[in-house]
Amino acid sequence: MFDVVYLCFGAAAWAIVAYKARAWFRDRQNADLGLTCVMTAGVANVFLLSAPSVYRWFDRLVGVANLAMVLLYSSVMVFATGALVLMLRWTGSAVRPRTVVAAVGAAWSVAVIGFAVGRPDAVEHPRDFSTAYADAPGVVIFLALYLAIFGAGLAGLGVLCRRYASTLRGSWLARGLRVLATGCWLGLAYCACKVIGLLFSWAGRGLPWLSNGVAPLTASVAALLVLAGFAIPALGPRASAWRRLRRLDPLWREVTAQAPEVAMPIGRPRWAGWWPFADLEWRANRQMAEIRDVQRGVRRHVEPEALEIARVKGRAAGLGDWQLVAFMEAAALRRGLLNQAAGRVPVPGADSVVVETGAGPGQEHEHLARVADVYHRPLVDEVLEELGERSAAQRQ
Predict the structure, then answer these.
(1) How far is CA 270 from the centre of its chain?
(2) Are 369 and 248 a contacting pair, CB within 8 Å?
(3) What are the CA-CA distances from residue 215 to residues 219, 228, 305, 343 (Å)?
(4) What's the pLDDT tens digit per position in 349-386?
């Protein structure tokens, strides 16, 4: 069971590493992105080596019992060192990152030496390493330095992530930083469990359920949160773009079918035909632009009172401000397309069928998605019926 769980988490983590590395190769000047790639790789390697079968296979390969634990904890050190370097970069500290890397490297070298000289037997301990060697001074030095460096990196990164998240309200980066901070705090709980377990072991009252049960579970959840925190800023906007595309697509298809002249001559990227998640932002922007072109093209076919009738009916139906604006635009767009198809050009025509919302560029997609949601609502049909009745009465 542990093999399956950890290997699945490891595979997912390495997929995130590949995704972030691809972004880094496109922007190699972004040192923070490169550093997060390395840190994510450290977490992914931890999951891989935490699988008992991989742990034992590696030790059989090198012929040294529990050497996989050194590699596993070294991967944790990669993450912790990266966290410390990020802390220096984000705070503008006068301490040079190279100094921190050298200091951690020196301390970890001492820890590895302690492991090498303090390992009393050749029995594999993939799940109870800290309790099995709680009385071995060399291994205790190894574990103490590991927990100290790891805890320092988690504490610094957790504080900074929470601080910067508060300045980036509502963004995917802020959400990712908050999740990352939570993972750091939970990682500190793991360190606390390990320290308490060691102290009780030295006192002759071992707590294996804490060191070998609660601590690894806490660390696994913390690692998942850290990975999620790294992935959310990249995957969140794409997930939002995918949802917008799904909501916009029916409206886009309908209006461009009736006004094919607005379709842009630039085709989709060559890979988009077989990969549905390719260039989601580009496709969402294109659909939004073409819908707006249709709206501008049909405004002369819309009666000036169309928006007012929609406003009155929407208010009577209890629509909120954002829903009302979307409803008004949907009714005007449908009326304009109907009149255009019938060749009717009312005099005077509407100055615009786009209602000013004051929304920023990032919210315009969501606004048009709301228009798509209400485009075929029965309430829109009622507006069109009333407009049709007024037009018929005027012609008589």
Answers:
(1) 26
(2) yes
(3) 6, 20, 67, 73
(4) 776 777 665 555 557 778 888 889 999 899 998 888 88
